[in-house]
Here is the input.
Amino acid sequence: MRRHKIRSVVTPDGLVVALRPLDANAPWVEAWRDLSRRALVDNLFYDPDFALPAAGAFGQGVQVAMVGDRAPEEPGLHLLGAWPIRTTRLRWGVPLILAMGWMHDFGIFGAPLLDAAEPARALDGLFSGLRRLVGPRLMLTHVPTRGPFADLLSGWLDRNRLRHARFWAHERAFLDLAAHDFAARAAYLDHISSRKRRKLRQAWDRLNAEGAVTTETIRDPADLPAAIDDYIALEAGGWKGRRGTAIADDPAQVAMMRGAVLGLGARGAVRIDRLRRDGRTLAAVISFITRGQLWSLKISYDAAAAKHSPGALAFHRLTQAIVADTAITRADSCAPPNYTLPETFWTERLALAHILVETKGGDPLFPLAVRLERIRAAANVRLKAWRQRLRARRDNGAAAAETTGDA
Here is the structure.
């Protein structure tokens, strides 16, 4: 395994910025965990109880950039910021160093964890330290372009007269109940057309015609191990299993999901919602919860029952549960853009982008980096469009059938 040189720098105002490899046994993990509970913007994927289990499957070469009041190994560490990153020299095929926020197939939100009490100081220290540790340019991945983090980043760039460039701006289904009173929450699903409501009722009746279906939510840590294994088996029996892309096809992903579900489940931060008949799971949704935000990460259903739309019915009931739970104010679908199933039920959209940032001190090669990234992005758009056309015929067709009950 490649070893990273342990490096730290001290900022002018006395903060220590350090790069450390992902290590579940490191003495600073608890300080990282504490930061995740008081961050300006929640990020499930950068919470150590998710990130560390993901390291085995997706963490090669990843380091955690941290900014705190002392070196990470010193007792009493108070972290102001944490950002898992990869450093690359080959993104554009030329020797331009780039620090990129960690992203992977299960990690598609990239806002760094910043202390809500001092977010501007945390961001400035983190970026200034990374300039000295890595280089003058950074790529934030899958970060929101509206809201607290976007405002913070924009203000920092403006104050320091620094350049930035956005790539792959996109939106995905999101549910936002923060401004809703009790009546507005209760009426949230009223936007669903009468035709779709009828189709959902008919699908539920058809599903029950073959035997009574029960709904259940698994949250007890003692029940989660069996529930996650049941989900992995359910997914393996569907189209992902046939394509060889199911979690079960990769032992590292199996370990990751088990570790994340058990670790976060011990904190009461996991729910697995299922439709069941005679001890058999017809559909299941795995969700994580961080301080009032739900992350709907995985959904699967029994292919044998697909004609009765069990996935759509499970997602509909999850939405009803979210609306009824006043402790939850937001929910991220974690879905690709324009994905039919969550967009049927959730009306808001989360705007995201990758943002290339110049750090304080300037970067004479920043315009070149922007041009190269645009070329790379254009090539990726063409490739993704081709792949999405193929995928849409399967996924949107299946999702639409799940939603309408027409499969």
